[in-house]
Amino acid sequence: MNPVRRFRRWVGQHLILGLGLLVLIYTFVPIAVVVLMGFNDSSKSRNVYKFQEFTFGNWLHPFKPNGMGDAVLLSIEIALVATLIATILGTLAAFALVRHRFVGRNAANLIIFLPMASPEIVLGSSLLALFVAAGQGGRLGFVTILIAHVMFCLSFVIVTVKARLSGLDDNLEQAAMDLYATESQTFWKVTFPLVLPGIVSAALLSFSLSFDDFIITNLNAGQSVTFPMFVYGSSQRGVPMQVNVIGTAMFLIAISIVLGSEIVRRRQQRALAS
Length: 274
Known about the structure:
76% of the residues lie in helices and 0% in strands. The protein is mostly helical. It has a domain at 71-239: Orthogonal Bundle (MetI-like fold), CATH 1.10.3720.10. Helix 3 packs parallel to helix 6, helix 3 packs across helix 10 (227-235) and helix 4 (105-117) crosses helix 6 (142-166). The radius of gyration is 24 Å and the shape is globular.
């Protein structure tokens, strides 16, 4: 075969793979910088993002800067509660929108996308105006942040679970009921396990969105300080390297959850195949 033709054939076969690898590398370069800076001793220079000296001190004392531990704890608390509420409400709404026909269904599908399509500054200022109009302008804090986070996480949960439900094969549920399973048994033994990966994905997405939100939180936080707000405040004086430690830890936890769920899924598939 002509070498030129062989080269073109090889490029055609590996082009998509190569482009995908380039995109992944481009995506993970900033994460690699964060991981690297978690081991950086920046105490000898004012340029905190210039690698000076390797150290484990940042990992041994991740909450050394005053106030950072409280900010991380507050962000985790808000993210967990907001994720729980948004996942429950969003899952119920997704089932209603996919499995039932009612007046205003099309309008509801359209409204769901508005929080996702609107700029965060619009959502944050609108919520702030709402809280002020409700007489809560002087009581901004945990509750108002939680309400705001549930509001914008809800749309992502509904869309994610809806996608999973839309691709669900109805024949499986019908087969279960043909075998004399009740509606409750069909739901918990067939429907819910099939939808569960979508629910878990929606919950993980909600947690990450809530944990790292800054604009909406900053407008509705009052005197409360979450982790992103702490980072923003610290950037004016010099970001402590412990911030990279927290970011790296959250990334590793997320990767562990994804890999763990994938391992469990493959084991279940092998068990069913055997």
